[in-house]
Amino acid sequence: xxxxxxxxxxxxxxxxxxxxxxxxxxxxxxxxxxxxxxxxxxxxxxxxxxxxxxxxxxxxxxxxxxxxxxxxxxxxxxxxxxxxxxxxxxxxxxxxxxxxxxxxxxxxxxxxxxxxxxxxxxxxxxx
Length: 127
Ligand SMILES: [Zn+2]
Hints:
Blueprint: H1 4-63, H2 68-80
């Protein structure tokens, strides 16, 4: 079957579209696999942190006179420290002393202007 010059051009365009769609699908699959790997790594990390927390709590409640009510009250206090009692430690971040934008606790300096963080805690890279 012959389509002539225009038919061949349309066939070439259709082939190119098909190749582009295949490339996008391959890229999307790769991105999805990367996301699955990242989620699996995070789940593993959260599981380990939960285990560490439970072990620490077990030791603390056993060795010291600390009740579950004390723990719950402290959790409420820490939750509210960022200005939002939402069950998360992370807030908007402290404002940058130089430009006033929110600074991430994970970085040693402002991502906008480069000002150094002045207050650094042992938990900065985990919350
Ligand atoms: Zn700044």
